[in-house]
Amino acid sequence: MSVKDFDVVIKNSNLINPERQFTLIKNIGIKDGKIIAITREDIKGRKEIDAGSSVVCSGFIDIHAHVDGESYSAECMVKQGVTTSVGGNCGISPANTESFFDDLDTRGFILNQAMMVGHLSGLRRRVGADNPYIPATPQQIKDMVYLLERAFEQGAIGLSFSLAYAPGASFEEVMELSKIVAKYGRFIGIHLRYDGWKWMESINEFVQIARLTGVSLHISCFAYQAGMGIMEQVLKVLDKARQEGIDVTADSGMYEAFAAPIGTPVYDDDCFERWGCGYKNLIAVTGKYAGMRCNKEIFEELREKYKEDVVIMFACKRKDIYKALLWDYMMVSTDGAVGHPKPGCGHPQSAGTFPKFFQKMVKEKKMISLTEAVRKATLLPVQRLGLENKGRIKEGADADIVIFDLGKIKDKADYLGTGRPDAPPEGINYVIINGQVVVDNGEFKKGVLAGKTIRV
Are the C-beta atoms of 85 and 113 separated by less than 8 Å? Predict the structure, then answer.
């Protein structure tokens, strides 16, 4: 083959393939955004990358994030190795899926973007069910069913519920929408009605819905919902559900604090009791009090006057996070870009989740193998999403690839007031999206809009 036959060649690839459970030293040839060759032959390309001793695997698939077309958030994600982001989570999505995709295609985007339909903003608010504490009427439910079907026909990949944000949603409302999800063969991403110590009673609602409809369940940001000292018990609940034939998976981040806008029902009166925390466990990360810990006065002022400001709550136990990520069907996710943070603010999860996962669980603690870690960051999420050409290194697949140095990989992001929440990690050497090099020898290349919308 001549030089012109490949756009990019990765040589001496320490290739991790969790689908086949092996590691190979091979060369990878990329042409027109696709992986064309995986071979031991000495192939040539216009750009050649010598992977050396670095790990080569599919780009990371972030199944739970809030990038949703925001460029700076996408940049932070790409720097940590994410090539595909799933948005529209926690019940929050653009009102019109097709318009969102069309706009992103027109202006171009840094990474691949798939979208869920958000129950709260994508459905409820569009039919006039604006009060999150009041059940939708039968007519509003019918109207939501119609909008959901349209969104699926426009390419939405699933439906996201955050009943913590819409506690008034009735069982009937959730049931009727879940029937449509099952009909289209999609899945529901769930932030349960209650978290913390009330998690157990709220999971039964969705287990019952799955039994009745056959819908696939995916529990979002798992440690942020159940990482308050009850992890062993809740994982047993999920194991039991799977043994009964219910299709349930989950995703989790790597941090002890979760982020949410302070005006949401998440921070209603019983929240501190559920989490076993107090005002001092809250830090504002955007707005007037960014970087400050809350007290009663700040908390009440933010709840009344600055409802969109994002705060992070230190509610989770570190040991529970690791337990969660050891569960066989648990994927890695960032929950990143909550509130679309600007440079210098936000939650470190938006910049450091995947490097932290490999740094802590593989390199330092040796809790899981490298191959299993790659599976949780790539293959497992695309199997849930139903994407054949993402999350895999194989001939004919999309050329979304990350090359990282396991010996050097390190999360550098930190909480506001202690460090930079958006500090890029170390050890991510190359990121390739649809055949274009977006991170080149550790440097992010501004202006490369290599991403594509993912319509299913």
Answer: yes
The long-range contacts involving 323-326, CB below 8 angstroms and separated by at least 24 positions, are 323/231, 323/232, 323/235, 324/222, 324/223, 324/226, 324/227, 324/231, 324/235, 324/250, 324/252, 325/223, 325/252, 325/254, 325/357, 325/361, 325/368, 325/376, 326/367, 326/368
Reduce the secondary structure of 285-297 to three states and give it as a string.
CCCCCCCCECCHH
The tokens of 74 are what? 């996408």
CA distance linking residue 56 with residue 49, whole number of Å: 11
The pTM of the whole model exceeds 0.70: yes
Which helix (H) or strand (E) segment holds residue 218: the answer is: strand 216-219
DSSP per-residue letters across 357-384: HIIIIIIIS--S-HHHHHIIIIIHHHHH
Identify the bridge partners of residue 160 per DSSP, sorted by sequence position.
118, 189
- The length of the chain is 456
Confidence of residue 197 (pLDDT cuts 50, 70, 90): confident
pLDDT category of residue 32 using cuts at 50, 70 and 90:
very high
pLDDT digits (tens, 9 = 90+) for 90-142: 999 999 999 999 999 999 999 999 999 999 999 999 999 999 999 999 999 99
Residue-wise pLDDT for 322-340, tens only, equals: 999 999 999 999 999 999 9
